[in-house]
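input
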Amino acid sequence: MRNTLDTVATQSILPKLWVIVDDGSTDETPEILKEYSEKYSWIRIVTRHDRGQRSVGPGVIEAFYDGFNTIDPSEYFYMCKLDLDLRLPERYFELLMQRMEENPRIATCSGKAYIDDGRGGYMNERHGDENSIGAVKFYRIDRFLEMGGFVREVMWDGIDGHRCRMRGWIARSWDDEALRFIHLRPMGSTQVNVFVGRMRHGYGQYFMGTGFLWMLATFVYRISERPYVIGGGAIVWGWLKSYLKGMRRYEELGFREFLRHYHWRSLMVGKAKAIQEIEEKHGGAFGK
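output
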């Protein structure tokens, strides 16, 4: 947490306001947040009651809205949904705002996440270019409001990118050195273990509306990623388990059709070309 607090406090452009939601923490979090809020006037702490367990997905977004609902969105041009397990490069916010000013169609963007490779270096966490990363999701606040905000469910950070494209906007992440940030907890992990996290991801794909063919392609793509083979298999099993139980799915009108067409085109021509087709349909090339 101190990593994130310190790297935000040393940004080339500081936040006008940073609302940090203490989601009922029972460790040293409240004391650390008090220390930083007393040091920086632009930090505000919102404390929630301890729900008794970690709730990934809907719990994350509930906590986000507990903070968001304390502000007047009309006072701001940009917002960032930010996790507290990151190290950010010093010009992170400055460069994202610069790129969004250059291209008004960009609704949400981010840099790329890197994690410890276990050998003294860092490796790319392998996110696609077609969306911003949920741990540090940067938005034009008017586009965020027009879209209706985040869905309060697992896969909220994938659904929003597709919802942006449905409206003719751009969602993007860049693997530029000046925008690379360190993710101190690997994507898809949980307080239980990484396999539970991967199964949760599979459920999220099911909820979003992803078809089984795309899940098989995901399995192949994840074979070379730790934990090898079984990590991708856990994602597929999470999808299958949700399907067999007949669990509910995301129901925005036209969303699932849009998603399936995008996935089919991605399998046929690749993600970059599929995104380019969507962008050209709306009158412009894929955001630079």
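quick obs: The beta strands are 18-22, 43-47, 78-82, 86-87, 106-110, 113-116, 122-124, 136-140, 170-173, 181-183.
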